[in-house]
Write a structure and sequence with these properties.
Blueprint: H1 3-9, H2 13-21, H3 37-44, H4 47-55, H5 70-75
Helix pairs in contact: 1-2, 1-3, 2-4, 3-4
Length: 76
Amino acid sequence: MMLLHYAATYCDSKVIAKNLDMRLAYVNLNNGRGYTPLHISAMRREPEVIVSLLTKDASTFETTGDGQCAVVYVED
């Protein structure tokens, strides 16, 4: 599992912030199913993580393998 995806899955905002600040990870990287860290944090409804990703230019337009953008998960 990719670093930011793992941190988003476990809602670890400190790990996300540190890696984004150090530019150690690509914020819009899709995993094997097409999910970005923003998709995962939106599914978890974790505001602190979502804001961290958005302030580092996470794209709300990236889509999963089935065509869903992260906004869909927040709207549910």
